[in-house]
């Protein structure tokens, strides 16, 4: 994401700004101008940014005003055939979550030409599993419709978010602009544990399902999110409060077992 775009989104996440100022700043962001008409809030929302115009004419993000209980979180996990430079997404799993309940699920393989043996061993996904899978472009397009402008959540969110965003951009579908939360960061501030990897937290919290498959891992991350949200301090009320808390609040004291 270009620095100017990142700065604009951070500004909107912190306060409302004049419509004219928003348009002026947005028009200087080439990455966005080449994709959408910056005056169209619907187009921004299609890219995942929950932008709104207030009754006073100012522009902001609805996540500033949306309570955590009202928010829709999309908890995501991907399996890939390698890194972003030498691999591709081969499976996406996601669950939409609101106020303690799962609203909907998304799961799809994506066609690939090859899968390294170590990835087959790790995930159990083979080329035979992908033989009838839809093209990656179709999977990303359908996933983005499912995601909409909900809050993107993942365990190690930077990896999943950036991989999907770069893939989407390379396919001509535009980057992701959704607000995002990492459950590793959030867990470090709400759950006392020795390790914060997905398998470690699953064991600590008694979450039992298969590991290294996208939908199962998304469901596991959703269960971790539930625990994190129950442990929030009272002053974390809105989605933007939650994002800020997940990044900058003090981490909890780690309890090391004796013996």
UniProtKB/TrEMBL annotation:
Lineage, broadest ranks: Bacteria, Pseudomonadati, Campylobacterota, Epsilonproteobacteria, Campylobacterales
GO biological process: DNA replication proofreading
Annotated PANTHER family: DNA POLYMERASE III SUBUNIT EPSILON (PTHR30231:SF41)
Gene Ontology MF term list: 3'-5' exonuclease activity; DNA binding; DNA-directed DNA polymerase activity
Residue ranges occupied by any Exonuclease domain in the UniProt entry: 72-234
Cellular component aspect of the GO annotation: cytosol
Naturally occurring in which organism (per UniProt): Campylobacter corcagiensis
InterPro entries in the record: DnaQ, Ribonucl_H, RNaseH-like_sf, RNaseH_sf
Record bears the keyword Oxidoreductase: no
Role according to the record: DNA polymerase III is a complex, multichain enzyme responsible for most of the replicative synthesis in bacteria. The epsilon subunit contain the editing function and is a proofreading 3'-5' exonuclease.
Keyword Nucleotidyltransferase in record: no
Keywords from the named record: Exonuclease, Hydrolase, Nuclease
Protein name in the entry: 3'-5' exonuclease
Oligomer status and interactors: DNA polymerase III contains a core (composed of alpha, epsilon and theta chains) that associates with a tau subunit. This core dimerizes to form the POLIII' complex. PolIII' associates with the gamma complex (composed of gamma, delta, delta', psi and chi chains) and with the beta chain to form the complete DNA polymerase III complex.
